[in-house]
Amino acid sequence: MLADPNAISITDKARNKVNELMKDAGVSTTTHFVRVGVKGGGCSGLSYELDFDDALQTGDMEFGDESLKIVCDMKSFLYLCGTELDFSDGLNGKGFNFINPNAARTCGCGESFAI
User: Fold this and answer.
1) Is residue 31 within 8 Å of residue 24, measured between CB atoms?
2) Fold of the CATH domain 9-114
């Protein structure tokens, strides 16, 4: 079965880091999920949001599998469809990265983008 090219996906490295952070925060993947989103702001106009949540909202889009669910509101999904969430712990920066095929440009820090 082919993966949906519009889905929001997560790399194994990011999945492992999310699981570690959830454990440290005392939350479980059976009760919580990763919520990703977009808000106005940042040096390029739009910035990414990433958090844990346990309440679905009307219109939420759900991705992932039985081990980790990723949720995104419909408005944010318009900007994030096809995005892959990755994690880097290299010398050039540590943290989560949104690999967004819809971004026309990103800022130097990688935390904001423009369409």
Assistant:
1) no
2) Hypothetical Protein Aq_1857; Chain: A; (2.60.300)
